[in-house]
Structures are given as structure tokens and as C-alpha cells.
Amino acid sequence: MTITSNVEDRIGTITIDRAEKLNALDPEHLRALRRHLAGLSSDPSVNVIVITGAGGRAFCVGADLTSAPTSDAGVAEAFPMDLEQSGENGLYIRLFNLSGLQIRKPLIAAVDGYCLGGGLELALQCDLVVASGKASFGLPEVAVASVPGGGGATNLMRAIPRAVAMRMLLTGERIDAQRALAIGLVSDVWPAERFADETNALARRIADNGPLAVQMIKMLASQTTTLPSLQAFQLTELAWSLLRDTADRREGRQAFAEKRKPVYIGR
């Protein structure tokens, strides 16, 4: 299997292992990636999910262009209501879009090497992006007379300053890890030799928190940013009310009073 997942101590890790293709993805492997994401999201033993690429050269360079021929199909054929009946090019666009999976757990994109095209589109749909010092990022679709199909333009504009995003989108240029850190595309950059350990430490810090609270914060962060202030506050009040009487919240307060590490059970 070239898309694998494992769970260790509440951290689920998905590895894209097509190193010979710089972890490019064709429809078969995109479906496998989605299955692993859905499985880990519904697994009660998982508190946080990390997506990474094998081989040390790339996180993911997007669609496998050798498996994505151009098509003469019309728009109606490329984008029917049923995803699985989509034409080849429409299928790529839809499979790179993760929004329909409704993943509740925090997602970390661990980028070591190239993160280009659909690879960056995947990373932009994660909650955190961390990078090794040799990572690079770009949406080069304009160079092949195309556009970022998996929400790349919209998500990049939301993630970083408009002027920087537009330059990346219109030129197809890449940026390195330090530039990505400076503009806020990534939260952390670590040396390649420490990258796996630092990523695991970050995932561990998230996994040790109350899982219901973490999932609620992810929901609030994604759903309230475009709401009017009053509606955002009301949704926050509702979230707090739902957590108020949980066993985890009682445990957190008791552990704090007793100066010990809390033991959360997700209830």
C-alpha cells in the first residue's frame, strides 16, 4: 500500500508513500487518502491526525499528471452530481477537496520537501502546516495553462496576505520554508534532522488536551470567522454550554486543582 496510516498513543499518522513520483496522487491514491482520513476522524482513540510524505524529498507534488490526460468531455460530463461518475479531470478536482469529509479532528500537514499544486491544496485544508528547512511551496498550475482546482486560490488568499498570494498564484513561483514562515503559511520550521521529532511533539501537545474541547475549537475556528460578531458569540456560548457538564471538563478542573496531569476520556 502506498497510502498508509497508523495510530500510536492517540496520534493518527497518514503517510503518502509514492516517493518515486514525489508523492504525486492519482484518483486511486486520492480515494485511499480520503478513506484513511475518514477512518481516523471517526476513530475514538485518535485525537489528532498528521499527514506526511515519505522519501524525504516531497510532501506531495499534487496530481499525477501522467495519469491525468486532457479530456474533450463537456462540463456536464466532467462534473455530474455523483462524484464517482465524474470525468477524469473533474474527478481530480473533487477528490482533492476534503470539505465533504467533515473531519472533526485537528489535521497537521507535516511538509518535508516539495509541497506543490494539489499538495499545497491539501496542506491548506489542514489546521496547521509545519515544515522542515528544506520545504518549498507553490501553486504552479498557471505554467501548464490550468488553475488550482482543489480550492487552492481561495484557501491561499485566506491563509496569507493578498499581495503575496496573488504573486504566487499569477506567477506560479515557489517560496521556501523561511518565506512561508514569515508570511504565516506555516506555523513552525524545524531542521530536517529534527523534523519528525518536533512534529510528533506538537501533535502530542494537542493530543494531550481535552479531545472534545479541541474538536469544538476547530469547529468554532472554521465556522465563526465569517459570521457577524453577535452570531459568532452565540455559537461560542452554545459550544461552551455543551462542554460545561462533560466528564472531561470536570476532570480538567480537578486535575488542575490537584496539580496533576489530567486523564481525558472524550466524554
Account of the 3D structure:
InterPro entries: ClpP/crotonase-like_dom_sf (IPR029045), Enoyl-CoA_hyd/isom_CS (IPR018376), Enoyl-CoA_hydra/iso (IPR001753), Enoyl-CoA_hydra_C (IPR014748). One of its GO terms (molecular function) is lyase activity. This is Enoyl-CoA hydratase/isomerase family protein. The model has no long low-confidence stretch (mean pLDDT 90). The protein is globular, with a radius of gyration of 19 Å. The two termini are 34 Å apart. The chain folds into two domains: 3-207, Alpha-Beta Complex (2-enoyl-CoA Hydratase, Chain A, domain 1), CATH 3.90.226.10; 210-258. α1 runs parallel beside α3 and α9 (211-223) packs antiparallel against α10. The longest helix is centred in the first third of the chain and has 16 residues, at 27-42. The strands form two sheets. It has a six-stranded mixed beta sheet, sandwiched between helices. Strands 4-6-8-9 form a four-stranded mixed beta sheet. 43% of the residues lie in helices and 16% in strands. It is built from eleven helices and ten strands. With 267 residues, it is α/β, with parallel strands linked by helices.
